[in-house]
Amino acid sequence: MYWIKKVTKYGAFILILLVTAIPVRAQQAQLSLDIQVNEALANSQSIDVQSLVSNTGNGPTLFQIYLENENPTEYANNLYLEVIIRSDKVGEIAHATQVDGQPFSLSPGQKVYATNNSISKGLPGIEEAIQFDGGLTQAGKDFVSNLQGNTLPADRYSVEINVYQGGPQQTKVASAKAEVGTHIVEATNDFYLLSPGDVAGSNTTISNTYPNFQWQGQTGTSYRLLVVEGKEDDSPQSLLEGAASTPPQNGTTKPGSLVDYEMLDVIVDGSNYQYPSTGVQDLEPGKTYYWRVIQRLKTGNGIDKKKSEVWSFSLANHQKSVVAAQDNGKFSNALKTVLGDKFQEFSQEGYSFKSVKIDGKIYRGGQALQRLLDLSRQAEQGDVSIVIEEQ
Fold first, then answer.
1. CA Rg value for the chain
2. Cα–Cα distance between 263 and 155 in angstroms, integer?
3. How many CB atoms lie within 10 A of CB 97?
4. Which terminus has fewer CB within 10 Å in the chain: N or C?
5. Model pLDDT for residues 192-229, shown as the tens digit of each residue
6. Which of 191, 224, 159, 199 is nearest to 312 (CA)?
7. Cβ distance 164 to 156 under 8 Å?
8. How far apart are CA 208 and CA 366, in angstroms?
9. Which pLDDT does position 340 carry in this prediction?
10. Which residues face 267 on adjacent strands?
11. pLDDT one-digit tens code per residue, 34-51
12. Helix or strand run (H / E) with residue 342
């Protein structure tokens, strides 16, 4: 209410002006929202579920959000975030909503790029602090307590981000959702063998006495590698099944148990394994060997096992294989890379290659050649530096 007094020559009069406040409805925010899931979450079984809604901001970067005020002239005020993590089997694992009474705003045309970590510390470029109520649901707590090592079992998961205006869950003005876990659910059979050899019956011959077993498979998964010697009266499948009936070697504390025709039975955390030079039976020239890997995938019910196809190889004569490898251009180039200028000097003085010593371990024959080739490749890629010292 305002009082205005005006004086004229005829006297004074008072003008009373009443001003009434009329509420104006806030303009609805015009936002765009996108969410992208980090490959670490999409491809891994080793993500701590609770870090999805962690308030510490120090966990792995699991997802990024891209939020924009599409109105070039008006502020987007009174905004609230909501994060929901779901599982097909469990339902809502986590549900976190921004604290009521502590909204944030976007200036005209402002764009925000944030991760699950930066959200907990505040959105970059926004002054208001972001705090959340909620976290793991009761189903989520039960889910986490039943996990082995807090890792994601095979399932399909989704990360949903919602933005509300006016208060938590009042008027939804933007929403985005990303599904993850497709790799975990659908790619469990998507692993295959690479080397040595080929499918059983291909009559493939190799020269390396200590071959490097390689396969293509999902990261973050353990595998059981089985290698057996062929027998005329038994099928490769029956030999491998018999080998799998005994405990495998798992690290240095569990040596395992081998049947008489079993060459190797070991748990591998990765997708390759070098046949050892000690502790197992040596592969013999002229004999045929069969091998497979068994994928060990963690699930909510324990370990899910899936078998690869069976591959085979025969070992060529050892002496011939070493000579052939030494005559190979790749091996000569590897020696040149490792020895540098000394290669020509040693060759002229009549030196011959015998063994390689790396980290105190001596490698001979085909395994030594393989180590040289690996060193050469790493040197060419800049992963290692090779220094020749006179002793």
1. 33
2. 36
3. 17
4. C
5. 788 999 888 778 899 888 999 998 877 677 899 999 99
6. 199
7. no
8. 5
9. 73
10. 224
11. 887 765 555 544 445 555
12. helix 342-348
Q: Which two tokens stand for residue 135?
A: 């976290």
What number of helices (H) and strands (E) belong to the chain? 9, 23
pTM over 0.90: no
Q: What does the pLDDT read at residue 365? A: 59
Q: Which tokens go with 147?
A: 């996990």
- Kind plus residue range of the DSSP H or E element containing 241: helix 236-244
At 361 the pLDDT is: 66
**pLDDT mean by block of 10 residues, the chain; 391 residues:** 43 42 63 78 50 53 83 92 87 89 90 77 78 85 69 74 91 88 45 84 85 83 91 87 86 60 90 87 90 78 76 76 49 70 68 67 64 73 65 49
Read off the pLDDT of residues 60-71 as tens digits, 9 standing for 90 and up.
567 778 899 999
Closest CA to 124 of 136, 113, 140: 113
> 91 φ, ψ to 5°?
100, -140
* Class of residue 372 by CB neighbours under 10 A (exposed 0-12, middle 13-18, buried 19+): buried
Domains and CATH numbers, the chain: 31-186 (2.60.40.10), 190-316 (2.60.40.10), 319-380 (no CATH)
Identify the H or E element spanning 42. Answer: helix 39-43
**Residue of 35, 139, 46 lying closest to 87 (CA atoms):** 139
Distance between CA atoms of residues 146 and 163, nearest Å: 32
Query: Who contacts 221 (Cβ-Cβ below 8 Å, separation ≥6)?
Result: 45, 295, 296, 297
Give residue-wise pLDDT tens across range 279-298: 788 898 889 999 999 987 76
Token pair of 37 as six digits? 């899931």
Residue whose C-alpha is closest to residue 26's, from 77, 67, 60 = 77
Residue 41, burial from CB neighbour count under 10 angstroms (0-12, 13-18, 19+) = buried
State the DSSP H helix or E strand holding residue 57, giving kind and residue range, or none if neither: none
Q: Indicate the length of the chain as a whole number.
A: 391
Q: Give me the pLDDT at residue 6, please.
A: 45
The amino acid sitting at 165 is: Q
Residue pair 217/223 in contact by the 8 Å Cβ criterion = yes
Ordered DSSP codes for 302-337: EEEEEE---EEEEEPPHHHHHHHHHHSHHHHHHHHH
